[in-house]
Write a structure and sequence with these properties.
By secondary structure, this protein is an alpha/beta fold. It has nine helices and 14 strands. The termini are close together.
Length: 309
C-alpha cells in the first residue's frame, strides 16, 4: 500500500478519539490538511461496535471516493495495528471493540479492499504530523508526547517511530515506564492529577474533585496547592523521560494534548525535570505542538506514504 500512497496526490485519513471521529483529505505536496475536507463527528467511546463503526463510516463517506491510496486510521491503543483488531479491555473506552475486526467492518461498509485500510497509533500519528510540518520539522530525531487522559509518546527517527532498543522505553511508549516504583501514569495523567489535588484540598471527597482544566485555572489564579500539584506532575514527567530523550539523541521535545494548552504551567516544570535527570538537556528545545488539532491527520498520511513495506 505504501507505494500507492506515495504516488498519489492526496490521502484520505481518519482519526478516532474517545469523543470524536475526524476524517480529512491530506495533500502530499506539503502534508497539509485540506480545510474544507475536515469533518469531525461526536463519538461515544462506550457505544456498541455498530454505533462506533457507523460514526467512522459517516465521517469517511463524506470525503467521497477513497482512491488508490486507501484509508489510514489513527486510533488509540491497545490495538493490534497489523491485524486491525481492537484489544480494549478494562481501559474505560471502546470496550465493544475488544477482539473486533475493525478493518473488515470498515472495508465492508465502505466498499474497500481490506488491504487498503491501514492503522497506526494516534500518538504516533500526532508526532509524525509535527515532524512533517510542525514543531519537530527539521529534526532527524525527535520525541513527541501528548498529555491528556494519559501520556502518549513517540520517538521518531527521520519521521518514523522507533519502538525497540535501549534508547527508547518499552515498545517505544512512555506510558509503559515506571516512576519511583509505580506506573508513570499514576503520577502524570488526568486521573493522577485530579487525585493529587483532591488529596490536598478535599481528602474525603468521593467525586474526584476538580478536573485538570479547573486545577490549571486555579493555579493561574494563585492557588498554591494547584500550582504545586501540576509542578510535581510535570517535573516528574521530565525526570522519567530525561534519560531516554538524551540516549535517543533527540534534537527537540514536542508537547501536545489538552494539558499543553496551559503551556506556562507545563513547560517550566517539564524542563526542570529533564535537567534533573540529565543536566545536558538544559539546551534541549521544548516546544508546544504547532498543529495540535490537525497533526494526527497529517501524520497518518505521511506515515502511509513513507512506512516500510
Amino acid at each position: 500500500m505504501a507505494n500507492d500512497v506515495a504516488d498519489a496526490p492526496a490521502s484520505r485519513v481518519l482519526e478516532v478519539g474517545g469523543t470524536h471521529a475526524t476524517a480529512a483529505t491530506v495533500e502530499h505536496s506539503n502534508w497539509s490538511v485540506l480545510p474544507d475536507s475536515v469533518l469531525r463527528l461526536p463519538l461515544q467511546a462506550a457505544g456498541t461496535a455498530g454505533e462506533l463503526v457507523e460514526v467512522m463510516v459517516r465521517a469517511v463517506s463524506a470525503l467521497g471516493h477513497v482512491g488508490p491510496a486507501g484509508l489510514t486510521v489513527a486510533i488509540p491503543g491497545p490495538f493490534d495495528y497489523h491485524r486491525g483488531v481492537g484489544q480494549y479491555r478494562d481501559v474505560g473506552k471502546f470496550d465493544s471493540l475488544a477482539d473486533f475486526d475493525l478493518r473488515s467492518a470498515l472495508a465492508g461498509r465502505l466498499g474497500l479492499p481490506a488491504g487498503s485500510i491501514a492503522f497506526l497509533n494516534d500518538a504516533d500519528a500526532f508526532g509524525i504530523g509535527e515532524y512533517a510540518l510542525g514543531a519537530a520539522s527539521g529534526y532527524p530525531r525527535a520525541v513527541c508526547i501528548t498529555l491528556g487522559t494519559g501520556v502518549g509518546s513517540v520517538f521518531l527517527d527521520n519521521g518514523m517511530p522507533v519502538t525497540t532498543g535501549p534508547a527508547v522505553p518499552p515498545m517505544g511508549t512512555a506510558h509503559r515506564l515506571n516512576y519511583r516504583g509505580r506506573p508513570l501514569e499514576e503520577t502524570v495523567s488526568r486521573r493522577a492529577i485530579r487525585a493529587a489535588y483532591a488529596a490536598v484540598v478535599s481528602p474525603n471527597s468521593k467525586d474526584g474533585g476538580a478536573d485538570v482544566e479547573e486545577i490549571a485555572s486555579l493555579a493561574h489564579g494563585g492557588d498554591k496547592a494547584a500550582a504545586q500539584v501540576l509542578d510535581t506532575a510535570f517535573s516528574s514527567l521530565g525526570d522519567a523521560l530525561g534519560e531516554y530523550v538524551h540516549a535517543f539523541g533527540a534534537g527537540v521535545l514536542v508537547v501536545g494534548g489538552s494539558m499543553a494548552r496551559s503551556w506556562d504551567l507545563v513547560a517550566p516544570p517539564l524542563r526542570k525535570g529533564l535537567v534533573s535527570a540529565v543536566p545536558e538537556l538544559g539546551e534541549l528545545p521544548v516546544r508546544p505542538a504547532r498543529h495540535p488539532e490537525l497533526a494526527a491527520l497529517s501524520g497518518a498520511a505521511y506515515w502511509s506514504a513513507h512506512r516500510p513495506e
